[in-house]
């Protein structure tokens, strides 16, 4: 049994007396791709905020990454320890080329100026070439990022996340606003990352969830807690999930 890379234990988060996350327990294995779904307001973004250090849990809970207790670490430290996050809306450097966007995201203490004007070593170059192929933007490496289609910007941002060499990737609704073909390609990309990386993907598009959860587990959040966890079909057929999430339990 692989040991969990992430353990979230008895974690709660209260905002102005409202519990956005309630006694949440969540374990992710090394190399696992987990999909997290849940209705609006279920706590998915707050869950990511807590793991990434953007928000602090109420006293009492614990978040462990590898063997490090990150419960009270700040966002910057957690990112350096190896948790990278991609938000729903792509945020690329529009005026820079695709290639330079990746250079700017390479791991290490580099300012914008030194990143762009420093000579890359051959190891970095090879890695960026591989990344460009992986995200299928090899032929657009010299394009300004602002010229890319929405789906391509999302892939570039996944590439930027990978350039920073995280061990765990938190990815928020990567398929939002994509065409069917782009969505499918994104699923292939994420599936190809599993194993080498650990990933948690929050998503609403059920066709996409079915694709990326084909070999893995889905966690359903509801009112800030785990309602159900299992293979896609198990989750889809779960009565509680139908009632609260799909809203058609009685039909
Ligand atoms: N900073 C905050 N201050 C006050 N309430 C918050 C804050 N962040 C989240 N909440 C509340 O916590 C609950 C969970 O919100 P969250 O954004 O985590 O849900 P979600 O599952 O990501 O929803 P969606 O799918 O709509 O993005 C909501 O009721 C929300 O209003």
From TrEMBL:
<dbReference type="InterPro" id="IPR032823">
    <property type="entry name" value="BCA_ABC_TP_C"/>
</dbReference>
<feature type="domain" description="ABC transporter">
    <location>
        <begin position="6"/>
        <end position="248"/>
    </location>
</feature>
<keyword id="KW-0547">Nucleotide-binding</keyword>
<dbReference type="GO" id="GO:0016887">
    <property type="term" value="F:ATP hydrolysis activity"/>
</dbReference>
<dbReference type="InterPro" id="IPR003439">
    <property type="entry name" value="ABC_transporter-like_ATP-bd"/>
</dbReference>
<keyword id="KW-0813">Transport</keyword>
<protein>
    <submittedName>
        <fullName>Urea ABC transporter ATP-binding protein UrtD</fullName>
    </submittedName>
</protein>
<dbReference type="GO" id="GO:0005524">
    <property type="term" value="F:ATP binding"/>
</dbReference>
<dbReference type="Pfam" id="PF00005">
    <property type="entry name" value="ABC_tran"/>
</dbReference>
<dbReference type="InterPro" id="IPR017781">
    <property type="entry name" value="ABC_transptr_urea_ATP-bd_UrtD"/>
</dbReference>
<dbReference type="Pfam" id="PF12399">
    <property type="entry name" value="BCA_ABC_TP_C"/>
</dbReference>
<dbReference type="GO" id="GO:0005886">
    <property type="term" value="C:plasma membrane"/>
</dbReference>
<dbReference type="InterPro" id="IPR027417">
    <property type="entry name" value="P-loop_NTPase"/>
</dbReference>
<keyword id="KW-0067">ATP-binding</keyword>
<dbReference type="InterPro" id="IPR051120">
    <property type="entry name" value="ABC_AA/LPS_Transport"/>
</dbReference>
């Amino acid at each position: 049994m692989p040991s969990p890379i992430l353990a979230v234990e008895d974690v709660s988060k209260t905002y102005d007396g409202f519990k956005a996350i309630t006694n949440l327990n969540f374990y992710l294995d090394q190399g696992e791709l987990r999909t997290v779904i849940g209705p609006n307001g279920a706590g998915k973004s707050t869950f990511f905020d807590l793991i990434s250090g953007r928000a602090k849990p109420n006293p009492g809970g614990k978040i462990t990454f590898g063997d490090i207790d990150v419960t009270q670490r700040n966002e910057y430290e957690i990112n350096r320890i190896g948790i990278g996050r991609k938000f729903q809306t792509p945020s690329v450097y529009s005026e820079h080329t695709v290639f330079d966007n990746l250079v700017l995201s390479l791991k290490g203490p580099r300012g914008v100026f030194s990143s762009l004007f420093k000579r890359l070593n051959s190891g970095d170059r090879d890695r960026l070439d591989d990344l460009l192929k992986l995200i299928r933007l090899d032929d657009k490496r010299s394009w300004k990022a602002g010229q890319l289609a929405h789906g391509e910007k999302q892939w570039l941002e996944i590439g930027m996340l990978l350039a920073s060499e995280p061990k765990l990737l938190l990815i928020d609704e990567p398929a939002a606003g994509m065409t069917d073909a782009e969505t499918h390609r994104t699923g292939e990309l994420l599936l190809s990352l599993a194993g080498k990386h650990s990933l948690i993907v929050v998503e609403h598009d059920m066709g996409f969830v079915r694709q990326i959860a084909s070999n893995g587990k889905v966690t359903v959040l509801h009112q800030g807690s785990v309602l159900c966890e299992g293979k896609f079909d198990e989750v889809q057929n779960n009565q509680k999930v139908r009632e609260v999430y799909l809203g058609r339990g009685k039909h």
